[in-house]
Write a structure and sequence with these properties.
three-stranded antiparallel sheet; OB fold (Dihydrolipoamide Acetyltransferase, E2P); about 40% helix; 4 domains; GMP Synthetase, Chain A, domain 3; N Utilization Substance Protein A, Chain:P, domain 4; alpha+beta
Length: about 350
């Protein structure tokens, strides 16, 4: 990053020298020579930075026309066109087809060209970086919070300023400029103004999947498999895991020795609660597991409607439903079945602590 910054610094010095040289030539009256040197400079910088020369010239033409409109008296309906001759480097401005090139236009053209070239160099370098990071879409990366842009958060990922929209942020999470966070590289999106930008997320289910892959070696090497994820970002997540490898406890692998792995993940999520559920191909067992920590005693299936009534002991009714219905809601999302909870009117012998 430092190397690129130094390169960009010397590039700016080089462009400034060209700009000052052009002004010097114009002042001396060698206007045609300046125009010729100006065109050579455009070709040289475009070649060095991998920019199409014609793209630069067209951008300069548009910028010159806009500069003329700003500095000289023209009507809104007037057609103003600026053109740099591709061969001689002559500047020409026409208004409604009539040559209206000002005598001091060389100075304006030089200044405008400098700005356009810097912008083109910046755009090219940004597109190059985006092309490189595009190969890493779908992975977890470290980022640094740069600033807030309305409801969006700008996060520096490597050398790119990525956007984390409001819907991709963890609800209630407080971030400040300079905070280092992990983000999921979601996609590169085209914006009407501002071109292509990297979109990152912390609220996506895929962020949780990538976080588990990062923290649990058994998941990254596919010994343990994440089957389903149900999440309410910032509050609670249920992750269903499975392994057919002999001697592997999928839940224990995710929790880690003394809970170190699950603690590391909850810390990254701002203490969002994570329930690790054992996936089972037996649907009845899977639905029972999904309602943990409650312990259902019976299930009544309506397979046509994909609906199940789960019977729980009377003293576990609120535990199964969860605060504001969250536990049953996440279980339904995890299993893709509509779930209703009913009490059997009998107290259970074992009384798990109620969810706080």
């Amino acid at each position: 990053m430092l190397f690129l910054s130094i390169k960009y610094y010397f590039l700016q010095i080089f462009i400034n020298m060209i700009y000052l040289f052009l002004i010097y030539i114009v002042i001396l009256g060698n206007y045609m020579a300046a125009q010729s040197d100006f065109l050579i400079a455009i070709h040289q910088i475009a070649s060095e930075r991998g920019i199409e020369t014609q793209d630069v010239i067209e951008a300069v033409n548009e910028a010159l026309a806009a500069a003329y409109r700003k500095d000289y008296s023209v009507e809104e309906e007037d057609v103003v066109e600026a053109k740099i001759d591709d061969n001689t480097g002559d500047f020409k401005v026409t208004v409604n087809g009539k040559d209206s090139t000002p005598k001091d236009f060389g100075r304006i053209a030089s200044q405008t060209a400098k700005q356009v070239i810097l912008q083109k160099v910046s755009e090219t370098e940004r597109d190059t970086l985006l092309s490189q990071i595009e190969k890493r879409i779908g992975t977890l990366e470290m980022g640094t919070v740069q600033r807030f842009d309305g409801q969006n958060i700008v996060v520096e990922v490597g050398k790119i300023s990525a956007i984390m929209p409001q819907q991709e942020q963890i609800y209630g999470e407080i971030l400040r400029p300079g905070t280092k966070i992990k983000v999921y590289l979601k996609e590169i999106q085209e914006f009407p103004t501002g071109g292509r930008k990297l979109i990152v997320s912390r609220s996506s289910d895929l962020f949780i999947r990538a976080l588990f892959e990062n923290e649990v070696p058994e998941i990254s090497n596919s010994t343990v498999i994440i089957k389903d994820i149900a999440r309410e970002a910032g509050s609670r997540t249920k992750v269903a895991v499975f392994s057919d490898a002999q001697g592997i406890d999928p839940i224990g692998a995710c929790v880690g020795q003394r809970g170190m792995r699950i603690i590391a993940m909850t810390n990254e999520l701002g203490n969002e609660k994570i329930d690790i559920i054992l996936w089972d191909e037996d649907l009845e067992k899977y639905i029972k597991n999904s309602l943990s920590p409650a312990k259902p005693v019976a299930l009544k299936f309506d397979k046509e409607e994909k609906h199940v009534i789960v019977i729980v002991p009377d003293d576990q009714l609120s535990l199964a439903i969860g605060k504001d219905g969250q536990n049953v809601r996440l279980a339904a999302k995890l299993t893709s079945w509509s779930i209703d909870i009913e009490s059997d009117g009998i107290k259970s012998e074992e009384e798990p602590s109620l969810e706080k």
